[in-house]
Amino acid sequence: MTDTPIVETRGLEVRFPLPTHFLSREKPVLHALNTVDVAIRPGESFCVVGESGCGKTTLGRTIIGLQRPTAGEVYFRGKRIDTMDETERKPIRRDMQMVFQNPYASLNPRRNVFDTLVEPVRHLMPEMSASEARTRVEEVLDATGCDPSWQRRLPHEFSGGQRQRIAIARALVTNPAFIVADEPISALDVSIQAQILNLLSDLQAERGLTYLFITHDLSVVEHFGTRVAVMYLGRIMELAETATLFSRPSHPYTQLLLEAIPKLEGGSFDRPHPPGELPDPVNPPPGCPFAPRCPIAVARCRSERPELRKLKNGAEAACHLAE
Ligand SMILES: Nc1ncnc2c1ncn2[C@@H]1O[C@H](COP(=O)(O)OP(=O)(O)O)[C@@H](O)[C@H]1O
Ligand SMILES: [Mg+2]
Asked: pTM for the complete prediction?
């Protein structure tokens, strides 16, 4: 593993203008991502965790190019990609793929498995002959535990776990180096989740893949992640090696998330979140976004926003009081 990042974001911001109320002059803007800096190392599983609405999907979509940033930069292997047009980006799109949360929605219901898988090859690898493309499809079906006989069948004939294998096969068919996996197991039966996680791990080991792995479930991260970024209201609150984060969490928000993991294996997946409501991302609080829910917040936390800074244990935390 080298230290040169495969994917990097600098000062990434995404804002969504919202519809204006007809009686109001205000133009509300939702701050989905605020100055997000990540540097993902080749071969790692970089996990992004946080409650629903904190910006995880927006980060994945912006890196992959499905969402344009409002400000900031995205780099792939040192090359800036967020400003590229569709033609310039085409050779990079085969290297960066995404697996979506819901395999019931992400596969075209009218397209059989072969057509679903061959489409990215035809589009992004026009140099491949028809027979090479067929071989490639068969190879990824085999690698992802899909039966070759599935090729002529439609998505509705498959279970959730089988569909997610097909979606993973589709992401792999162009032989990418980097995959955004956006909550790839959260729509699946608990009994299937481990199978899909193991498949992702095996594929990573076999193919040297780098993952941006998005989840709201910290217990998954402990076994899967190399490093973890904890997000809150569009910001990274803590970034650490997985072992460090789980043994010595630095940010009060991370500490609360960890306390919320049930100690019993197989506990409920609808685990309680830290008490209190998420602030409104249209009107974020002036200081630390977590201050309104933070058990140790002081006056400074409500007025001055903490920057992400390096701590003695090697982690980074955006908290005035960490350490
Ligand atoms: N296309 C959009 N238009 C307006 N708001 C959006 C859009 N996409 C996401 N958002 C908002 O951006 C915030 C972050 O969303 P998202 O990235 O989906 O969070 P997560 O994946 O962590 O649940 C949320 O407040 C969400 O409502
Ligand atoms: Mg999401």
From this structure: 0.94
